[in-house]
From TrEMBL:
Coiled coil: none annotated. GO terms for molecular function: hydrolase activity. Residues 6-204 form the Calcineurin-like phosphoesterase domain. It comes from Halodesulfovibrio spirochaetisodalis. InterPro entries: Calcineurin-like_PHP, DNA_Repair-Maintenance_Comp, Metallo-depent_PP-like, Mre11_N, Pesterase_YhaO. PANTHER family: COMPONENT OF ATP-DEPENDENT DSDNA EXONUCLEASE, PHOSPHOESTERASE. This is Calcineurin-like phosphoesterase domain-containing protein. It holds the Pfam family Metallophos. It comes from the Bacteria. Keywords: Hydrolase.
Amino acid sequence: MKPTFSFIHAADLHLDAAFKGVAHVSSQVAGVLRSATFEALERLTQLACKERPLFVVLAGDIYNQEDQSLKARFALLDACKRMDEAGVRVFIVHGNHDPLVESEKSFSFPENVHIFGTEGVEQVRVENSDGELVAVVHGISHGKHNERRKLARQYKRTEDDVFQIALLHCTVDSVAASEQYAPASVGDFAKSGIDYWALGHIHEQQIVSKEPFAAYSGNIQGLHINEQGERGCLFVTVEDGQSTIRSHTLGTVQWKIIPVDISAIEQLDMLEDAVENYLDGVVQTLPESCKGVIVRLVLKGRSVLDGELRKNGAVQEFTERIREGQMQNSPFVWLKDIELACKPDVDIKAMRSRPDLLGEALTVAESLTGENGVEELRESVSELYGSPAVKRNLTILTDVELEQLAAEAQYLCIDLLEAE
């Protein structure tokens, strides 16, 4: 029987990275957000020092090189020193946000740390406290922000009859991703003969393949509204050559998108009560380790309040009122924004068939919500995005966002063109 050992798989720490879409937060929330990535690293370090795995692997994007944050780099150094004192080794590859360039070599890490280079895949043999060879860790770092080499194809199992781990920051072709860095496939993994692929880059924790085993550990702290729920690392136990994993939460702040059906709500004060009840319910579901939650409410259903909510500035004023009532909660609740996915309490199909300007406008707006309509919409705004100034300040809209705008235009037409 082969020796049993354990290791921690973490990635995408993005230390000191700014949270997106949370401008003008209160000073209380701002303080928690500034420290959130560092607190997640602290929890990772505490886990390693308490559980004493044989080693920790960090699969890239430990910080954002473009931020030039010395605080982030010192935090990593301090964490590695503490793990060294606990007898835990650390293996690091660099990713697209923290490529291994000369400036990254300006820190002297303790002897327990091995940083993989960029020229070719390196192998490190790992022994346990009894001096037995129990694992081989393979790795290669990104050498630039836009790494296009198919690095996974360079990995190959050594002849050692032990558990072997590949550490790589990459995009697997079976996983949806807008940015393709160090593109790889499950087929590449299988050809390597390696037992466990510890991946970084995709922020959602997920198993990519079971044979060979390949997983993204996800990021340790969500950074925007599309990174919902708990975030953390994978604790891997290897027994007789077989691995088992368990997820461990590290993040201190969560993001949530909450749908609220307002079909039966007829007054704004009733809506306020309903929203506050939803948010209070969210707090009750949070784990003790969570310091706060950032929420987007999505109002749905046909409602008599639709027109009132769509008036200029109404949603923002309502949002600010809700925020005031939630700031005393612990964990805190910060209402990021409210999205109007509701509809007016009218028969829009009947209105569309009317032989007047409103009927014509609704018909045109509906035609722009299909696949062909989206292409027409994109073509109509292409000239706007041709301006360099606009490109710097506006995000290019997705097909879904364009369809949402076309759908919302129908209700705006009703508000503006329907006679009182």
